[in-house]
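One such shown below:
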Amino acid sequence: AAAKLCAGEIHIPQPRLREGRILSENRLAHSLIDISDGLIGDLGHICEESKSGAVIWPDTIPVSAEASAIAGKMKKNIADLAMYGGEDYELLFTVPVNNVREAMLKILKNTGTSVSAIGEITARKGIYIQSDKKQKAIGAWRGYEHFLAV
């Protein structure tokens, strides 16, 4: 007897090529990377190359309702999953303060993609998580670990 292989809806991340082109053609961004190894891991690459640091505002990281629901079922903190998970293929880019609004509007208008400001680049080295009025330093920048159980 033949069997059928069935699966639920499969979500395939879409590379943000159009969004990247808009940033490039309009010379809006200083740096840009896709988030394939996790937000913190890929932010670490930007910080290393620019010899800078960063502060992340975890409450501003956009996450889908589905991701939040899964995090709840797994009893995991959604902010931690958003910062350390991988394979998102969203863009992480740095924009001069005076270009932020223009970058957000151009991308939204031309692609329908919303962009969120999730932190800032600093002269102080290291990556820090801002919560309430405190900043917590991230030790080693770790990205997505393909063979680590969640």
The radius of gyration is 17 Å. The chain has five helices and six strands. Residues 16 and 104 are 14 Å apart (CA to CA).
